[in-house]
Design goal:
nucleotide-binding, 9 helices, single chain, RapZ-like_N, alpha/beta, 278 residues, ATP-binding, 19% strand, 4-stranded parallel sheet
Length: 278
């Protein structure tokens, strides 16, 4: 049985993720108490269901600490289980709750919205490492849908290298494992004809590739990932997110992410994300 557990902070997009999984044929359950997880899996397996998606969050209370053990048990029973953890910056979550006028599940008359978000973040801190983290702070709903579809289509037996471009002026992605800074390189933004383009356009590629420093930095980053990737594989990591940042996330970082992805794609399972272009 294929099982996807969707967890993360309230307001980070769990409902969107569950809707995507339901659309592609998963039997979906939202806000399931952890005590019911094993009985539900047993029941649906008996009924012949082979794909299950479950949203679990901090409302499970104290039993939430048992999730790592439950995940290990289900995998030992032969389940093909994946965990997707969604998160976002506190200010983004505050804005989302303000716009929707929803109440945070952990807030109360004595707990403010920001305090509830921090409490939930602390409660879920040990869960984020169980699976693939997605920072939805700067993502549209449509971009998140595409990213979820990309994830569930991957071979789960292999590590996935994810190259993500971003702009430092918008903050470092929360889901990054390795972060490289390419702001020291010549910036196409200051060339009028290149400004509206991105790092995927040939004129920008030509501009960056004309810089010896850019090519040297590219080689260094590629060598670093190549040298240390076996260690992450031996650590049984399912994903490794390599984030490349420039100032705005439009030119240099996009070029680096695309070029590195192409270099590793023949040997590894690779995804590419461009946070500021999404």
């Amino acid at each position: 049985m294929q099982i996807v557990l969707v967890s993360g902070l309230s307001g980070s997009g769990k409902s969107i993720a569950i809707a995507v999984l339901e659309d592609v044929g998963y039997y979906c359950v939202d806000n399931l108490p952890l005590a019911m997880l094993q009985p539900l899996v047993d029941h649906l397996r008996h009924e012949g269901h082979d794909r299950l998606a479950i949203a679990i969050d901090a409302r499970s209370g104290a039993s939430f600490s048992q999730l790592p053990q439950i995940v290990d048990t289900l995998r030992a029973q032969g389940a093909d289980l994946r965990v997707i953890f969604l998160e976002a910056k506190t200010l983004t979550l505050v804005q989302r709750f303000s716009e929707t006028r929803r109440r945070h599940p952990l807030s109360s008359d004595t707990v403010s919205l920001q305090e509830a978000i921090q409490l939930e973040r602390e409660t879920l801190a040990d869960i984020a490492s169980l699976g693939h983290r997605i920072d939805t702070s700067d993502l549209s709903a449509s971009a998140l849908r595409l990213w979820i579809k990309d994830l569930i289509g991957l071979d789960r037996s292999r590590i996935t290298l994810l190259f993500e471009s971003f702009g430092f002026k918008h903050g470092i992605p929360l889901d990054a494992d390795l972060v490289f800074d390419v702001r020291c390189l010549p910036n196409p933004h200051y060339v009028a004809e290149l400004r509206p383009l991105t790092g995927r356009d040939q004129p920008v590629k030509d501009y960056i590739e004309a810089s010896p420093n850019a090519m040297a930095l590219l080689a260094d980053i590629r060598g670093f990932v190549e040298n240390w990737l076996p260690c992450f594989i031996r650590d049984h990591r399912a994903y490794l997110t390599v984030a490349i940042g420039c100032t705005g996330g439009q030119h240099r970082s996009v070029y680096f992410a695309e070029t590195l992805a192409a270099a590793f794609r023949e040997r590894e399972q690779v995804l590419v994300r461009h946070r500021e272009l999404s």
